[in-house]
Structure formats: C-alpha cells, structure tokens
Specification:
alpha/beta; Aspartate Aminotransferase, domain 2; 13 strands; binds pyridoxal-5'-phosphate
C-alpha cells in the first residue's frame, strides 16, 4: 500500500456523515443540506441539448488534449473574462475533468519527491484535496492560516526555510470557505516570491463566476500576471470549472491554463492517467463556455440569496457578504466554546439543517491552532425558498437561550 494514505483524514463529507450518524432531524421537518458546495440551480438546457446531440462521440476514445474547438472556446472565454490577449489554444490551455481531478494530477506533475523536504503551501482552512494531493506524492503541506481579523491568509508568516523548500503554492480565489478574493498586490508579491524561490503557483478559481455585483467580477491570477508583463505566465496556472459557473457538477469539466512548459508536462502525465474528456462532454462544454446569459442568470440567483438572507443571519451571528463564492463562514456562538462539531450536531437535531464543521476544512497548523475550529461553513446552494426556510430555522435555533 502507498504509506501516505495513512496520513490522510477521511474526506470532509465522510467525517460529517459519521458525526451525524446517530442524530435524527425533527419529525415533520424536511432536511435541508447546506453542507456540500454542490450547486442546486438547474443545469442549463444548452448543456443538456449538446450532450443529447453529440452521443456519436461515445464510440471513440477521446484525445487526451481534448478537441481543438474546446481549447479554443476556453482560450477565448479566458481572454474575454480577464481582459487578456487570446491564449494559445495549442500550448496554454488543457481541458480537465473538473478542478478536483486537475488539482490532484497537477500536483503529481509538479512535485519532485527526490528533492529534500518537498513542500506545498496550502491555505488553512482549505479544500481538502490540496492536502491529499500533496501528501500522496510525498510532499508535506505547510499551512498558511486565515486571519479572521483581516480577512486574509497570513502568507507573510511563512518562514524563509519553508519558502526554500516550497515547490508548489495553492491559492483559492474566490476562496472556499471564506469567500475572500485574493488582492492584486498579494498576487504580485506571490509572483515575486516564485521568481525568488522557483516554485509553481496554482490559482484555484472554480468560484470565479459566483459574485454579487455584475460590474465587479473578481480578478484572476492570469490577469494580474499579464498586467505585470508576465505574458508567458511563468510558473503559474489557473484552474476554472463549469461545476459552479454552469451548475453542472456532474459534467466533470474544467480547464487548466497558463505556463506552456508546465502544461506540456501535465499533458504527458495525462496521457497515462486516463483522464481524457469524453467528446460528448467536450461538446457540451463548448456550448457552456460560449454562453454568458445562463451565467448571469445564475449569479443573479446567488446575489438575491446573499443580499436578502445575509442581514437576517447577521442578527444572530457576525457575518457579512463574502467577496464572492457561495458560502457563509460563520463563527459558532460563544456558548459552544469553539466546538463546531457539537454545534453542527445540535443544529441538525433541532432544525434538520446540515452545515459543515470548520474543523473538517482545516488542520492544526505549525502554530498549533486549527483556524477552521469554531466555525461552520454554510453553502447557500439550494433554491431561494429552501435557503430562506433554513435561515428561519437557524435563526429560531440561535435565538434559544443556551443550555446551562
Ligand atoms: C475550492 C474548490 N476547488 C475545487 C473544487 C472541485 O470542483 P470541480 O472538480 O467540480 O471543478 C471544489 C468543489 O467544491 C472546491 O470547493
């Protein structure tokens, strides 16, 4: 067996299922699951229609690199969305089966386990795949803690000795779970650090299209790199996905774009790992990347939920509109003394609403703190009325006097 498997925690939702296994929701209240970031708005008809009309591709093995038409659609979308000159669809873009798969296999591509102390810098709290991908190829994650008082990750705390061993830095922007968008200055500083120490940066941007003000789209890493004259995107890739943008988490479709030399190595690995995209999925993906109307409609639905429901939740717990993405990152009430697992269990028992304990999205960092502890993540993915119902139930629960 791969000995690194023993270093992994069970995945977030396996732990959550275990936590709630012996808890029952109140009779008569339909359960509402706000724990998993799985979009529940309808998948647009243009994706479903394209799938139906491209079934002939099922009779062929798909090319690992994906069809040129898909790479061109992605390259054109990136250029439109981030105000960039068009990327080279031959060398700077690759389709992937969602960003989860890409995070795992790209880490495999980059990490050299034969160098001493291979390190991956990972934000904390974070999407668990970052850690799993690092550990399984023999690297050690170094955690960069979130500072709730500034709303930023503390990259400046990383010691010199760790920068020296760092081979890969993963940045999530907009961030799961905190909703933070990485600022321009921070990207620029990370690029300078990459020039100094030689590490590769992955920008996980799968939430880039979920934001609340049509006129204020979050910036992207490729955009900041190009603004700084780094048109070759050296040592940088960005990942995008149709899962959240186009409400198609089951399509398994995304991209990796950026540094052509890194993508050539990634393509080589992919010719062995079997993660080529079906031609049927590629056709549906082309339709999705070429259309923005459904994306604007989707955003409007999230904006309504966050604008109307955040003030209601803020009456009970300190929460503000996130910069972007579809999560609230809520501190548990003081009476729980930071015990987010107990809060999650009691909330479910009283209301039938499931949230994710922050502890399951975090690890004890070098300082000994677990920055996710004392928080829960709430994914406002369900339809408006269901989210409203969940907030009403949570409000009633939070208004109850604590048990002494
Ligand atoms: C931060 C982050 N990255 C990547 C993913 C994977 O998304 P997908 O593989 O559907 O593109 C998720 C899914 O929730 C996520 O939250």
């Amino acid at each position: 067996m791969n000995p690194h498997l023993d270093e992994l925690n069970d995945f977030t939702f396996t732990r959550l299922a275990r936590l709630l296994a012996d808890v029952t929701a109140p009779v008569g209240l339909a359960p509402i699951n706000l724990s998993i970031g799985e979009p529940k708005h309808p998948t647009p008809a243009l994706i479903i229609d394209a799938l139906r009309s491209h079934t002939a591709s099922l009779a062929q093995y798909p090319p690992t690199k994906g069809p040129l038409a898909l790479r061109q659609a992605i390259a054109a979308w990136i250029a439109r969305r981030f105000s960039l000159p068009p990327l080279d669809a031959e060398t700077q873009v690759l389709p992937v089966l969602g960003s989860k798969e890409a995070l795992y296999s790209f880490t495999q591509t980059i990490i050299d386990p034969t160098r001493s102390n291979p390190r991956v810098l990972v934000p904390n709290p974070f999407y668990m795949v970052y850690e799993g991908a690092a550990l399984l190829c023999g690297a050690k994650p170094h955690f960069v803690d979130y500072d709730a008082s500034t709303g930023q990750y503390r990259w400046e705390d990383v010691p010199e000795s760790v920068w020296q061993d760092t081979q890969l830095v993963i940045v999530c922007s907009p961030d799961n779970p905190t909703g933070t968008v990485t600022a321009r200055e921070r990207w620029r500083w990370l690029f300078e650090q990459s020039d100094r120490y030689g590490f590769v940066i992955v920008a996980d941007e799968c939430y880039s299209e979920i934001y609340f003000d049509e006129g204020a789209a979050p910036i992207g890493a490729l955009q900041v790199a190009a603004e700084a004259g780094r048109h070759d995107f050296r040592r940088l890739v960005a990942m995008g996905s149709l899962s959240k943008r186009s409400n198609a988490p089951g399509l398994r479709s995304g991209f990796v774009a950026g540094d052509a030399a890194l993508l050539a190595a990634f393509l080589k690995l992919r010719s062995f790992n079997g993660a080529a995209m079906s031609g049927t999925v590629a056709a549906a993906s082309i339709a999705a990347w070429n259309d923005e109307a459904h994306v604007r409609e989707n955003r409007a639905a999230y904006a309504r939920k966050f604008r109307e429901l955040t003030p209601l939740m803020a009456r009970h717990l300190p929460v503000a509109m996130p910069d972007a993405a579809f999560y609230w990152w809520l501190p548990v009430p003081p009476s729980y003394a930071g015990d987010d697992e107990r809060f999650t269990r009691e909330l479910f028992a009283a209301t039938g609403v499931t949230v994710t304990p922050g502890t399951y999205l975090s690890r004890p960092s070098q300082s000994g703190a677990t920055p996710g502890r004392g928080h829960v993540r709430v994914a406002l993915v369900a339809a408006f009325d269901e989210c409203r119902e969940a907030v009403d139930r949570m409000a009633a629960f939070l208004a109850r006097p604590p048990l002494s």
